[in-house]
Each structure stands twice: as C-alpha cells, then as structure tokens.
Request: fold
Amino acid sequence: MRRVGGRSDGAFGRTRGRALARTAFRALRAWYRPRLPLAPHRCPRCRFPAPGCLCAAVPRVRSRVEVVFLRHVSERGRLTNTGHWASLALEGSSVLEHGVVGEPLDVSRLDAAGAWLLFPSPHPPPRDAPPPLRLIVPDGTWAQARRIVQRVPEIRTLPRLAVEVAVPDALRLRRPLVLGGMSTLEAVAAALRALGEVEAADALDALHRDGVALATRLGGGPGRGSPPGSRTGAPPARRSARG
Ligand SMILES: [Zn+2]
Reply:
C-alpha cells in the first residue's frame, strides 16, 4: 500500500474524513442551535423561566446615546447573555446578529457619524473624533467579540471607547478570566457613566445585580469578578467569558 506522510492511504483518508465530518458537524450546529425554540416555560422576552422571570426588574432606561449590540449568534436564547438584558432596558437600542449562516450582516448603521466602538484599544481616540452618539457593542465571549471586531471592517476603524470595571469583585454569571473583565451589561453601564449618563448607568447596574441574583437563585453559578484592572490598556490576551 502506498504510504503518505508515514501513514497508509487508508489512515490518511480516515483522518481527513474525520476532519471533514467535524467541520460539517460544527457548521450544522452553528446553523441549527440558534434556531432551537426556547423551552415553553421560558419567557420569550427575557428568557428566564416564567412566572417569576426577569421582566419585572427590567427598567425603562433613556439615554442620549443610541446603543447597537452586535451580538454573536451563539448568544441567541442564552439566559446569561447580559447584553440582552441591557437591550430590553435601553430605549432605542437595537441588536444585530453576527455569524448567522446565510444571512449577511446589515452594516448600514454601524459606521455613521458619531458611531464609536465599545472595545479596548492601545491608542487614545482621535482628538477630532465627533462625540459618541451611537455606541457599537460587540457582544459574546471575549474571543467572539474580538473576532467580530476583526471581521466587520465597518467597525474596525471607529473611534474606541474603553472603560474600567466599576465593581471589580461583583458577582457575575460567567467568570471573567482577564484583568478588568466584566459583563457586557456592566461595560455598557460604565460607558454611559463615562459619557455623563449617570441615571442610565445606575439603572443598568441595578438590573445587572437583579439579573445575577435571580439567575443565581435559579441555579446558575456566579463567578466572582476579576481583580482591579483597566480595559483602557491593551486588549486582553486570553479568552474570557464576557456575556
Ligand atoms: Zn420575562
């Protein structure tokens, strides 16, 4: 039997076949999982089990800054996605899904004048950048958020707003693995606070506390927050569970 790279044709073929099968399985899962319906006992709005869901704790929050969540498709339907909680609360906010197979992202609203990206940057924003009127928020794990920024050219060149974690040792549903890690909802609250929207920031922080407490009572194990740190410096090097 002919040998290829020290293996027989048969072994090579099997290895290649398994790799192809894995790739096909991942593609199928990426397409199928977000389409799974919520379990019937879960609230279609907040995704928490009903009755007793999170909706009663979701405030109406007004802000001069429009928030656009650019959410990784794998976050669809996840109870622990705090960006979803923020989108329910913030009037005028919207959600775009990134990574939906067969559905190109509508980028028309991402790079308008006054759009800023909520993401760490090693550089300060340009002095002549217009004040933030619209905040683009990549939403997912850190690895997903990084990939979103890399793969969407319309947001890569936007001026960036980086924020510091307000409560380093806060309870979180997902344990941040990087210095200064925080959930998407906390990051949005910190950004609005930095932009002078103190009332909106306070309301979102309260929603975060309520949501984490409710999820914890339901059995989702919270993680203690990261040690004090800054998201204004270099982007985190390791994957964290931002959500
Ligand atoms: Zn609900």
